[in-house]
Amino acid sequence: MANLEQPYLDLLRKIMNQGHDKDDRTQTGTRSIFGAQMRFNLSKGFPLLTTKKVPFGLIKSELLWFLHGDTNIRFLLEHNNHIWDEWAFKNWVESSEYQGPDMTDFGLRSQKDPEFNQIYQEELKKFDQQILDNDEFANKYGELGNVYGAQWRHWEKRDGDFIDQIKNVIDQIKQTPYSRRLIVTAWNPEDVPTAALPPCHVLFQFYVNDGKLSLQLYQRSGDMFLGVPFNIASYSLLLNLVARECNLEVGEFIHTLGDAHIYSNHFNQVKELLSRNPYDAPQLWLNPDKNKIADFEMKDIKVKNYQHHGTIKAPVAV
């Protein structure tokens, strides 16, 4: 057993102590550094944060959503996952069909105005229920466009055909494990202007050595307190699933970030997190009867011996 989250805690401290205070798209403000890297040895455990509770169910449902090639939030809502709600909701309230209360800048306003936040939460709850109950509404307003699921599994070609990058990279790992081209990319300049959220996880690359599979992610933008703990666990899970299908052991997950930032309204939460002592990392359990990614369901993926501190809540910047 081992403390696997130390690289993450060290990077948080570095940003708090040495980062640059900057304005940002959400108008919240950040403290950031440019260019950072964390390394996690997955043979020693699974790097799910223990200094705060991280809901693993949300991580695995989101990753399965990506791997299914899905880009509609209905699957997520069916698994009580609200990670992507705000971006779909934004499309709804900015449409001509929306006739409810004014939701302009709902992300910032909900943080500063408790009365408005109550109205916002009620509208968001109604929106989610319509996605679940109404097929036509879900098809129109639950759709996020060419986000990760589409780019990974259904990259559109100029000739009208498509590329399944996940299938291709798994085939390449099996056939040419020495290749330096074991890459999946999500960044398509043509799609950036119309995507609900341009990909933060720009590309990832696999590497095989001594029967072990490693993965490096390049992330252009990382919300260090809320998002990055999910990203660490999600890509570590992805690495485990691909290793299972390719009959390899797991090696390292290497997380490289461009703009690694802490939002200014997360500073107190970060200080609280850094005051806590981490526990040993949990262990990942994958159903031993399944070998192909396509066969895995929620019940086939679990973490064991997950000891953790309590939840620390913080607002999402949209």
UniProtKB/TrEMBL annotation:
It catalyses: dUMP + (6R)-5,10-methylene-5,6,7,8-tetrahydrofolate = 7,8-dihydrofolate + dTMP. The active site is at residue 200. Gene3D superfamilies: Thymidylate synthase/dCMP hydroxymethylase domain (3.30.572.10). Keywords: Cytoplasm, Methyltransferase, Nucleotide biosynthesis, Transferase. GO terms for biological process: methylation. GO terms for molecular function: thymidylate synthase activity. SUPFAM superfamilies: Thymidylate synthase/dCMP hydroxymethylase. Its EC number is 2.1.1.45. (6R)-5,10-methylene-5,6,7,8-tetrahydrofolate binds at residues 223, 317. DUMP binds at residues 25, 180-181, 220-223, 231, 261-263. Residues 7-318 form the Thymidylate synthase/dCMP hydroxymethylase domain. InterPro entries: Thymidate_synth/dCMP_Mease (IPR045097), Thymidate_synth/dCMP_Mease_dom (IPR023451), Thymidate_synth/dCMP_Mease_sf (IPR036926), Thymidylate_synthase (IPR000398), Thymidylate_synthase_AS (IPR020940). Pfam families: Thymidylat_synt (PF00303). It is found in: Cytoplasm. Pathway: Pyrimidine metabolism; dTTP biosynthesis. Belongs to the thymidylate synthase family. Bacterial-type ThyA subfamily. Homodimer. Catalyzes the reductive methylation of 2'-deoxyuridine-5'-monophosphate (dUMP) to 2'-deoxythymidine-5'-monophosphate (dTMP) while utilizing 5,10-methylenetetrahydrofolate (mTHF) as the methyl donor and reductant in the reaction, yielding dihydrofolate (DHF) as a by-product. This enzymatic reaction provides an intracellular de novo source of dTMP, an essential precursor for DNA biosynthesis. NCBIfam families: PRK01827.1-2 (NF002496), thym_sym (TIGR03284). This is Thymidylate synthase. It comes from Lactobacillus colini. The gene is thyA.
